[in-house]
C-alpha cells in the first residue's frame, strides 16, 4: 500500500517536472499565438493594408480624415538606433572583455565583473530617466542639436544597457578557449596582445558572435529607455541628432490609449508580432551559433 | 618579459602590448565611467529627499511632496507574487532540462525556447499580459495580472542559473545514489537539489532584481498612477486591485506630474537602484560565500 | 540538514502567500475601491482628489490610472471602472456603443475647466500667437517651420521650430486637432511626448521648441503665449478669468463620466468633487474651478470646448 502510494507520488512529480520542463516552450508559443490572435482580425479589415503597414511612414491611427497605419518610419527608427548602439557597444564590450579576461590580475578581475553585473542590473526606466535628465542636456550643450532627446541619446543608453551582456558573454567565450592555446602561443614568444589577437579571437569567434547578437537582441527589444529618451518623432532620421521613434516605444506609448478590439489596438499587436519575429530570428541565430561552437 | 634583449623588434612588440592593454582598459573605463557618473549624479540630485520619511509616507499635495510608501509596498507585492509563481516552475523546468531531457530534436527546441523566452522584448510580454490575463482570463487590471506577466518574463533567469547549478553537481554523486537503489526523483531531491541550492538561490535573487525594475509589462496590466491606501496597514492591497509600483512611479513622476522638486524623482530612482543593487550584491555575496565554502 | 531547511523554506513561502491572500481578501471587503481611469491631463487633479477624499471618507480606496481620455471611456463601457476622466466631450459613436452594449447612457459631470496653454522656451521673444499661426505650424503641409517667419530670433542661432506634440490618442491631442487644426492631420515628425509634464520639460531645455498642454502644467522655466482667435483680434493669456469670460479661444471642460446613474458611493464622490472643497483643489492644482451655484453644463467653461 505504502509503496504503491509512493510510486504514484513519484509518477505525479515526474509528470509535473516534464510539464514545467516544456513550460518555457508553451509560454513562447503561447505568447506568439496570443499576440497573433489579437492581430488576426486585421485580415478582414478594409481600413488596413499590409503593404501600407510596411511601406508607408504615415502613422495616423486616430485621424479624423483617413486613419493610416504605416510603421516604416518606426522600423527605420528601431534599426538605426539599435545599429548605432551596436557600433558603440560591440567594440567597447569586446575590448572590455579582453581586458577583464586577458590583461587583468585575478583580484581586480572579480571586482570588475561585479561592477559589470551591477551595470546590467540597472532597470531600464532608470536609464530612461537618466537619458531625460542627464545625457539629453549634455547633448544640447555640446552639439548643434535642436533637441537633446534624439537618435544619439537613445543609442548611447542602449549601448550602455547592452554592453554588460556583451562583456559577460564574451568573457565566458574567452574563458572557454583551452589554456593550452595560450600556453602554446606564449611558448612561441607571443605577447599577450598577440596571443589575444591571433589566437583567442579566432578561437572564440563563435562565442563572440553570439555575445554581440544577444546584445543586439536586448537593444532591439528595449522599451522604456527609448520611450523616454529618443524623442518619439515619426521621421526617417537623416542624422544622428534627429529624433526617432522605435517600434517598442510606439507600442508602449499608444497601447494604453487604444481601446481593446479597435483597429489601432490590433495594429499595435501586429507590431508586437513583428518585434517578436525580429528578436526570435536574432536569438535563434545566437542559439545556433552557440550550439555550433559546443559541437566543434 | 625579460628586458635584457631589447632589440627594436622586441621593443615594438612591447610597445604594442602596452598600447593594447591601455586601449582595452580605456574601453572598460568608457563603460564604467557612465555607471559612476550616473549614480553619482542621481544621488547628488536626490540628496534633499533621501530621508527615512521618504520611504514611510505617501505622496501628498498632488504628488509634489511626500514619499513613496504605496509604490514601495506595491513593488514588494508584485515581486513576491511573481517570485512565488516563477520559482517552482523555473526550478522544475531546469531539473527537466538537466536531469530528464535527452538530446532529441524536441529538447533542442525546448532549449531554444528558453533562450528565446529570455529574449522576448518586455513590451511584447506586456501585450501578452494585457491580452491574456487582463482580457482573456478576465483577471482585469490587477496585481495578479501584473505579477503573472512578470513571472513569465523573469522565469528564464531562474531556469538559467538553476540549470548551471545543477550541471555543476558531479555525475558521480548521482551515480552513487542510484547504486543505493534510489529512484530518479529521490536522487534529485536528496542529492542534486541540496547541492545546487546556492545556484538556485542566486537565480531567485536575480529574478527579484529583474522583476523589481521592470516597467513596461506592469504599465498596462496592473500598475496605477496613484492609489490612496490607509496609513499603517502592512498589507494594503488586495490581489484583484491595482497597485502603485516604484518603477511606474518614477516614470509617471518624470512624465506626468508637474511642479515636482527634482529631488523626488531622483530619490525614487536612487531607491529603485539601491533596491536592485542591494539584491544583486546579496546574490553575488551568496555565490562567493558558497563557492569558497565548496572548495 | 540542508534538506530540512529547503522544506521549511517552501512551507514559509506557502504560509506567507496564504497570509497575503487571506489578509488582502479580508481587507477588500471592508474598503470600497473606486476605480478611476482616463485623461492624462486630469491625472494630477484626480490624484489630488483621491488623496484628500481619503480624509473625508476613510472607507473609500480610490485607484487613479491614466491612459488617456479614450481609454477611460472604453474601460467605462466595458464596466471595468466606475469613473472615467475625460478632457474632451464624449463622441457620439461612444454613446451609441454604450447604448448598444449595456443599454445605459453615459452620464456627464463637469468638474472643472482648463485652458490649453501654448508654451515656448523662456528665451523666445514671442509673446502672442494666433490660432491660425498655430495651425500653420502644426498641420500637414503647414507653411511655418522657422521662427524667423514669425519675426522671432531665437538665441544660439536655432531657427527651426521644434514642434512638441502629444501622442496620437490623448484627449489633448484630439482637442488641439479638432479646435486648432480644424480636424486636419498633424504634420508627422513632431516630438510626441507621453505626458504633459514631459512636453513642458522638453520645451524648457530646447530653445527652439513650441508645445501645448493643460494650463496646470505651466512652469517657471517656460513661457506661456497669449493666444488670439484670429489676426488683428486681441490675444488673451490662459488665466482663470479669461476662461470663465470665454475670452481665451482654446478652453475646454474637464469632465467625468459614469455609466448610467452612479451608485451612491460614486455619486457621493462626484458630489464632493463639485463641492467648494473639491473645487478648491481644482484651483490649487492650477485649473479653473467651475462657477459655483450656476447651472452646470458643458457650456460652463465657454470657449471651443462648448460645442
Tell me what you see in this structure.
The complex is a heterotrimer of chains A (296), B (295) and C (307). Chain A is mainly α and 296 residues long. Chain A has helices spanning 2-21, 23-39, 50-55, 72-103, 106-121, 124-142, 151-176, 179-187, 192-203, 205-221, 224-229, 247-255, 263-295; strands at residues 59-60, 68-69. Chain B has two domains: 8-49; 52-294, MetI-like (MetI-like fold). Chain B is built from twelve helices and three strands. Chain B has helices at residues 8-46, 52-56, 69-100, 105-119, 122-136, 143-167, 171-179, 184-195, 197-213, 216-219, 246-255, 263-294; strands at 59-60, 65-66, 226-227. A two-stranded antiparallel ribbon of chain B has the order 1-2. In chain B, strand 1 and strand 2 form a beta hairpin. The relative contact order of chain B is 0.14. Chain C has two domains: 7-112 and 253-296, D-Maltodextrin-Binding Protein, domain 2, CATH 3.40.190.10; 115-244, D-Maltodextrin-Binding Protein, domain 2 (3-Layer(aba) Sandwich), CATH 3.40.190.10. Helix content of chain C is 37%, strand content 22%. Chain C has ten helices and eleven strands. Chain C has helices spanning 2-30, 43-56, 69-77, 92-102, 131-138, 171-179, 196-204, 240-244, 264-273, 276-285; strands at 32-38, 60-67, 83-86, 106-121, 128-130, 162-166, 191-193, 209-214, 222-224, 226-228, 251-259. In chain C, the strands form two sheets. In chain C, strands 1, 2, 3, 4, 6, 7, 8, 9 and 11 form a nine-stranded mixed β-sheet that branches. A two-stranded parallel ribbon of chain C has the order 5-10. Residues 1-9, 22-30, 293-298 and 303-307 of chain C have low confidence and may be disordered. Classes of the chains: A mainly alpha (296), B mainly alpha (295), C alpha/beta (307). Chains in contact: A-B, A-C, B-C. The interface between A and B is large, with 88 and 93 residues.
Brief characterization of the structure:
The complex is a heterotrimer of chains A (296), B (295) and C (307). Chain A is mainly α. Chain A has 13 helices and two strands; from the N terminus they run H-H-H-E-E-H-H-H-H-H-H-H-H-H-H.
**What is the radius of gyration of chain B?**
24 Å
CATH C-level category of the largest domain in chain B: Mainly Alpha
Into how many domains do the coordinates of chain A divide? 2
The CATH superfamily of the largest domain in chain A is identified as: MetI-like
Task: Quickly give the structural class of chain A.
Answer: mainly alpha
Helix content of chain A: over 70%
Report the order of strands and helices of chain B: HHEEHHHHHHHHEHH
Number of strands of chain B: 3
User: Largest chain interface and its two residue counts?
Assistant: A-B, 88 and 93 residues
